[in-house]
Amino acid sequence: MEKVMQKYLDKAEVLIEALPYIQRFNRKIIVVKYGGSAMVDEELKARVIQDVTLLKLVGFKPIIVHGGGKEISKWVGKVGMEPQFINGLRVTDAETMELAEMVLGKVNKSLVQLVEQLGVRAIGISGKDGGLLKVDKKLADGEDIGFVGDVKEVNADIIYDLLEKDFLPIIAPIGLDDDYNTYNINADDAACAIAKAINAEKLAFLTDIEGVYKDPKDPSTLISELNVSDGKKLMEEGYIGGGMLPKIQNCIDAIENGVSRVHILDGRIPHCLLLEIFTNKGIGTAIKNDVEERYYYGE
Ligand SMILES: Nc1ncnc2c1ncn2[C@@H]1O[C@H](COP(=O)(O)OP(=O)(O)O)[C@@H](O)[C@H]1O
Ligand SMILES: CC(=O)N[C@@H](CCC(=O)OP(=O)(O)O)C(=O)O
């Protein structure tokens, strides 16, 4: 106990300095989309979860919407199939759907376990639970890509209830259509739909790249602030590919529909969320309205 107390006393000054800022953030809802590509190993997962949990402990209301695309692809490969994507969306036949649901369920509970270990209450659900995510079939460029869902309705009450009871909600991107068939939802789509439905203050995408590059092969072309028009132009001109495509589309959708702060961050960087929220310069790419200045919580 003495050791713990000493540690606390060593940090007390920092805490006292930080408190006025922390109090200012109280009760703001932050949706954290935690991508499978930034779940490189258990240690990294634990660190990301620590930061989200810390945000909860200092008064934010975080919600995690997670992916698991890489892990799903691994299992699709294990059963002898070739993972296939169109515009960043997985082509999902019945067998792939089954694998995706199994993998996402496992990822979901592993995140719940990490939060619980830190003494914070977490509830892991998928979009099937309580009618959280209702979908229609989604096409990719007019093409049928199987059981891929487009979120048409979010039952926000469930999330409000969980937040009200002080749980940290952890959501897997699976939904049901009107006939109660299971659908695979791109996790970026799910996070954006949820952020819009609950009027989140902030939506942060944690991925495996520093942010958006003008030239995906050249890290010196990192864009730290991307406005909506430029984002649309980059997509039209073919600078955005693969999994970044749904991310940018959703960033724009979120910004245009009332989410104030939208960011793409490198989830592999230690404390990326905290650096983005609490430092002046911020990190990664901030998506903003055409007229808006970059914002930070500190000053
Ligand atoms: N212009 C771009 N800037 C940054 N990343 C890009 C760009 N175009 C394509 N990408 C790719 O998008 C990937 C991120 O998407 P994805 O792998 O689906 O991540 P997540 O699992 O986090 O959703 C990056 O690793 C990168 O290879
Ligand atoms: C339809 C679709 O693309 N679903 C995604 C769901 C998981 C996901 O989005 O995971 P990441 O965030 O790690 O990419 C998939 O099957 O990969």
Automatic annotation (TrEMBL):
Instruction: Give the molecular function GO annotations.
Output: acetylglutamate kinase activity; ATP binding
Q: Which Gene3D superfamilies match?
A: Acetylglutamate kinase-like
Q: Which GO BP annotation is one of this protein's?
A: L-arginine biosynthetic process via ornithine
Predominant localisation class: cytoplasm
Among Pfam families, the record links this protein to:
AA_kinase (PF00696)
Instruction: Name a single GO cellular component.
Output: cytoplasm
Alphabetically list the UniProt keywords: Amino-acid biosynthesis, Arginine biosynthesis, ATP-binding, Cytoplasm, Kinase, Nucleotide-binding, Transferase
Q: What is this protein called?
A: Acetylglutamate kinase
Q: Top-down, what is the taxonomic lineage of the species of origin?
A: Bacteria, Bacillati, Bacillota, Clostridia, Lachnospirales
